[in-house]
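User: Can you predict the 3D structure for this chain?
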Amino acid sequence: MTTQTRLQNPTAGIAFVVVGILTISVNDMLIKLLSGGYPLHQMVFTRSLIGMCFTLVLVQIEGGWRILRTDQPGLHFLRASTLVLANLCFFSALAALTLAEATAIFFIGPLLITLLGVPILGEKVGPLRLGAVVVGFIGVIIMTRPWLSADQRDISFLIYLLPAVAALAYAITQVLTRKLSTTTKASVLAAYLQGLFMLVSIGFWIVAGDGRYAEGLESESLVFLLRAWVWPEGRDIYLFLLLGINAGIIGYTLAQAYRQADAAIIAPFEYLGLPLAVFWGWIIWRELPDMAVTTGILLILGSGLFVFVRERQKKLRALANTEAHRRF
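Assistant: Here is the predicted structure, written as structure tokens:
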């Protein structure tokens, strides 16, 4: 499948990313909801195990076991590793930050995808889009308020860096998805990802599954990461099951989205996650962003949408020029 063929179905790519983002918003809400009683690596293992079962069914539908073979194992490992890092950083931040704060900072990811598309995919980015990226980063600065001292903060500034690191890792993941999708099915990309998630979470369980490293810690994020495994009870069993189903849907839909259309077309639709994060925060925890967070959200959202509009204008001009050359 050539790049030209893949770029002919942006509508499908947009549909897949919208479904993926809706599912991610539910996933993030569930993880924050469960973060007070269960360790992150337990949730990751459960959702990946269930998600892998779902993914392997899709592998069979898209071609069978033979499509799992790859000539680029290193690149697949790098892609999966960056997404594992993104998840660990973002979910750790959720234990301490509001859903809206963590999500808003994380949404510099689509802006970073625009930048990373230059060295990795050979895409061109003009000064206006670069300016929009700078505006997005200003939004992050306003939200995190790095000028405040430790005594003026309820939450350490380092916690705010977690979703930023997650955004960078996620951006690398999606650019690599774009690169690998020329030869790899979406179900295969999802299968490799779920497999590495399982291995990493098992590693955490072996090292810290008894909770000994969480004793005496004050950081909510570190406690969430290192807390002992607890067998879920009551409704939590169903929430863990829903996490697993979500994992399968997320892994497939996002991989498929970036296979179907250019990263600059797909990435802006991920901003649907911002209002969804505010919605879940208000509905479940009665959290509404303050003025600084709201300002940051608007700057990040505005810069992302501007990048999208500029990219669309650029592609429309390129198509018009191509058609003009064909006529002559």
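Confidence is low (pLDDT under 50) at residues 1-7. Residues 3-327 form one domain.
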